[in-house]
Amino acid sequence: MVDFPDEVIEHVFNYMNSHRDRNNLSLVCKNWYRLERFSRKSVLIRNCYSISPERVIERFPRLRSLTLKGKPHLVDFNFVPYGWGGFVYPWIDALVNSEVELEELRLKRMVVTDESLKLISCSFVNFVSLVLVRCEGFTTHGLAAIAANCRFLKDLDLRESKVDDHMGQWLSFFPDCCTSLVTLKFACLKGSVNLAALERLVARSPNLRSLRLNGNVPLDALKKILMQAPQLVDLGTGSFVHDPYSQAFAGLRNIISKCKSITKISGFFNVLPYCLSAIYPICMNLTCLNLCHAARIPSNSLIKLISRCAKLHRLWIMDWIGDKGLEAVASTCKDLQELRVYASFHVIENDLAGVSEEGLVAISIGCRKLHSLLYTCRQMTNAVLITVAKNCPNFICFRLRILNPKKPDPTTMQPFDEGFGAIVQSCRKLKRLTLSGQLTDQVFLYIGMYCEQLETLSVAFAGESSDGMMYVLNGCQKLRKLDIRNSPFGNSALLMDMERYETMQSLWMSSCNVSIGACKILAKKMPSLNVEIINGNQQPVRSADDEQRVNKMYLYRTLVGKRKDAPEFVMTL
Amino acid sequence: MAKTPEPKRTISLKPCDGDVIEVSPMIAKQMQTIQSFIEDDSFIATTTIIPLPNVTAFQLSKIIDYLNYHSNSKAVADNVKESTKKFDEEFLKELEHDKLKELLHAANYLNVKEVLDFLCQAVADLIQDKSVKFVRKFFGVVNDYSVEEEEDIRRTHAWAFEGVEED
Q: For residue B132, which residues of chain A lie inside 8 Å, CB to CB?
């Protein structure tokens, strides 16, 4: 058969959007490489130090949408010192210099300066989407520039970013005409908000679907906003305090009941438990509920709320829901797919607060569609993990955090090897696993044996010898990210199969038994890897003797060699 | 629709392997390649037979079926979405890989946007999540990379342009 002309091939390419598929297309032959190269609009870089911006632009000169990730994810738990790196400015600068007509930018865990935001706002004429997840380094001045200059802006999402909030006025910088805004999420901002500007902005944004307010937007303002925007689908409520007997409160309930399209709800900063009843009228429609920012709500108020939310797919909640609350979730939310239970601080003070193995077993019986779990509990048992493995074999993500991570099973005083062993043996689709509790090398033997699909493994305070890590590296062929803290894995495990790290995205080891000498051997043998030694106390790393134990080591593969922006406390071997 | 008596004005298309097929001007107009004939001289277009040496009778009738179904369903309301989906699925079910590719060639030759869009989407769905080998075989493309070149690109993809999904 005759070959298809290039325009037909390109036409097919237009319908191929996944990054993996696009990568595959360019491997078919040299002509397809060329066609794919010039038609690729969306590029994803998982580690901003794995390649240079110039090389990305050279390869995909017509890119419109860029996703970039910076710091290792352990920065979320303060394990990566402040100032490590992950700066976006060089990328923006290169894109501007190459006259790339960028329209979408998604950044995760990167340092974004106001200078970067200003450069974005005045360089990319058709810029529509800015998503900054857990980023830092910028202020509301930078946001004001985006608001003022990006005339076609659709999405501004600052999810969990740390923003220096100098000015509640930034919302008034949006143009006076109708905006194209679809998403506006600023729940992470700490400062006050110009409420009049916010209300005016919502009124002239007819396409707005997602709006997440911060804790300084009071209920009265929310009422006015909801009256103007009953089309919202995703609402972050802002503050949620009111006198429940007032007329104003009755009005709110009435207004919320008209917002029939809301399916996702979050926020509830400073909520008073009885105010939650205002959202009862729309509970039946909710698929996603996030109560992580809600100030402490007693379990019985949560139960009243959740027992109305039968359609939930995703629930994020603090552990003060208690085991009784999780039982209510289990009996109501039959379609639940993702559950996250985070710890609050009071648990440490009070042994009986929070959630335990009982809540988890109830969930595993009631929510058979559950495939993603993050569970922070004060206590767990092997017997329950074995039951959970039997009830929910579809886990893709299983993250268990026991608050005292070194404790054995309190009923048998045994380590948790058999419990996690049951999970990995039963859940064959598992891609992400976080271990917790007392564990011996045995658990790693199970993981190596059964976790064929595992991509991300997080380990802390576990194992007995280097054997544990070796079992994992030998067994889990699809492993891409491995984070290990405070575990006795040493040089022999690190150096066992050095080429293995070329198949992985990154390896983090902190407070393990790895020496500087071993890291040097690794770096010398594998020039394609950046082996970073990070000094946790932010003092410059001195080239001490090779026997010295490494405080933190972060290893990743790169196509462009050592990074040049490392601070003094980072030494790249 | 009201039926008004009208002189028969159809366009005669002659596929390479069968008898002449008559189509309405409305359908013919969606075939850019035919439209140029009609625009040039609508009298000739309705009186002479337009030969299509690159299109078989099977392909031509498939394309006409598709256009007929979709132009009729457009006239009706939105609630035909389901049945349209069903028609599209049935349409593709009858096509083996080779037939699908030949039809895509024919649609490209006739330059029928609606059918081209539909078939390109169908091909994209077919090769989605498939290996490079499968894609090469499907399109009959010969790999002109050396082993080293291919490895180099694979490495660049894996190291820079791919990674694990997570929150």
A: 24, 27-28
Min mean pLDDT across A155-159, A348-352, A438-442 is at: A348-352
Span A37-48, mean pLDDT? 95
| The total number of residues written for chain B in this structure | 167
CA distance linking residue A91 with residue A86, whole number of Å: 10
pTM (2 decimals)?
Answer: 0.92
**Tens digits of per-residue pLDDT, B31-48?**
988 887 776 655 565 667
Six token digits for residue B148: 């080293």
Q: Is residue A36 part of a domain?
A: yes
Domain extent for B136: 129-167
- If one counts the domains in chain B, the total is 2
Flag whether A86 is in a domain.
Answer: no
Q: Which of A294, A249, A247, A286 is nearest to A267 (CA)?
A: A294
Quote the CA–CA distance of A534 and A96 in Å, as a whole number. 32
Interface touch A4/B108, C-beta < 8 Å: yes
Please state the rounded mean pLDDT for residues A50-54: 96
Q: How many CB pairs below 8 A link A and B? A: 118
Same domain, yes or no: B22 and B100: yes
Residue B1 forms part of a structural domain: no
- CATH number of the domain within which A29 lies: 1.20.1280.50
Contacts (Cβ under 8 Å, ≥6 apart) of A352 = none
pLDDT tens-place string over residues A371-394: 999 999 999 999 999 999 999 999
Region B56-79 average pLDDT: 82
pLDDT of A512 over the 50 cut: yes
Report if residue B88 sits inside a domain. yes
Average pLDDT over residues A77-89: 94
Cβ distance of A19 and B144 shorter than 8 Å = no
Q: Considering the domain boundaries, does residue A14 fall inside one?
A: yes
Contacts within 8 Å (CB) and 24+ apart, A533-537: A533/A570, A533/A571, A533/A572, A533/A573, A534/A80, A534/A81, A534/A84, A534/A569, A534/A570, A535/A81, A535/A569, A535/A570, A536/A79, A536/A81, A536/A510, A537/A569
**Whether A182 contacts A210, CB under 8 Å:** yes
Task: Flag if B144 and A30 touch (Cβ within 8 Å).
Answer: yes
Asked whether residue A33 is assigned to any structural domain, the reply reads yes
Cβ of B163 and A505 within 8 Å?
Answer: yes
**pLDDT the model gives residue A275:** 85
Mutate to test the interface with B, among A3, A9, A11 (most CBs of B within 10 A): A11
Domain total of chain A? 1
Phi and psi torsions of A69, nearest 5°: -120, 145
Whether residues B110 and B133 fall in one domain: no
Is the four-CA dihedral A420, A425, A427, A431 of positive or negative sign?
positive
**Rounded mean pLDDT of chain B?**
84
Q: Other C-beta atoms within 10 Å of A162: how many?
A: 14
ipTM of the prediction: 0.90
User: To the nearest whole number, what is the mean pLDDT of chain A?
Assistant: 93
